[in-house]
Design a protein that fits this description.
The chain has about 220 residues and is mainly alpha-helical. It is about 80% helix and about 0% strand. Bound molecules: 4-amino-5-hydroxymethyl-2-methylpyrimidine.
């Protein structure tokens, strides 16, 4: 079994909780309140900037030109998606950019930056993998069920689309290659990093759903 398949099996309960979460369900039905999506997209703009930084950290630490190129392309794509998708919704809903990261966004971005800076490239890759893989699976899940006239159609089409699908497959291959070279201890750390980021994906949606704010 591929290492990444083991990773996915391990997070199966987390993934199920994501699919049944009200945010994902209402996004799929097109009934998600605009304010909820606004909160999400504001936080996601902040998230994607740091996600891109985390990918650039991995690019800087890669040891082959091919791996460097892959990570810089992923880093660039994160910004391009941010521009294309977010600007659509920012102008559609007249959303103001937010500067404060709310708790889940704060936890997730700091976790990604710390892990990609201080841990091995293999562990860092495992930490960023859920950002790719969970979004592809959720995107496809929603795409198969959503009605055409869904206000969140641009979001759905981005993550269910071929371009995103291809980068996820590349990221999976990279992670499996790193895992082959890793010791059992490091593989266990990769699994832990993958699980933590998967859990933070759930929290990211949950924070938007409950409009979570700093209480103090
Ligand atoms: C929180 C989050 N995770 C993953 C993605 C997809 O890269 C995204 N846009 N936002």
């Amino acid at each position: 079994m591929r290492f990444t398949e083991q990773l996915w099996q391990d997070i199966s309960p987390i993934y199920s909780s994501i699919l049944t979460h009200g945010f994902v369900d209402e996004l799929m039905m097109g009934s998600l309140p605009t304010a909820t999506f606004q909160y999400y997209i504001q936080q996601d703009a902040l998230y994607l900037a740091d996600f891109s930084r985390a990918l650039n950290q991995l690019a800087a630490r890669a040891t082959t030109p091919d791996d460097m190129l892959q990570f810089t392309q992923f880093a660039q794509n994160a910004i391009l998606v941010e521009r294309a998708l977010h600007e659509t919704y920012f102008s559609l809903y007249a959303i103001q950019p937010e500067t404060t990261k709310m708790p889940a966004c704060f936890a997730y971005t700091n976790y990604l930056l710390a892990t990609t800076s201080l841990q091995s490239i293999a562990i860092g890759a495992a930490a960023v993998l859920p950002c790719f893989w969970i979004y592809r699976q959720v995107g496809k899940h929603i795409y198969e069920r959503a009605i055409q006239e869904n206000p969140y159609r641009a979001w759905i089409d981005t993550y269910a689309g071929d371009a995103f699908d291809q980068s996820v497959s590349q990221m999976l291959d990279l992670t499996d290659r790193f895992a082959e070279l890793a010791s059992p201890t490091e593989r266990a750390q990769m699994q832990e990093a993958f699980r933590i980021s998967s859990r933070l994906e759930w929290y990211f949606w949950n924070d938007a759903y409950i409009q979570n704010r700093w209480l103090v």
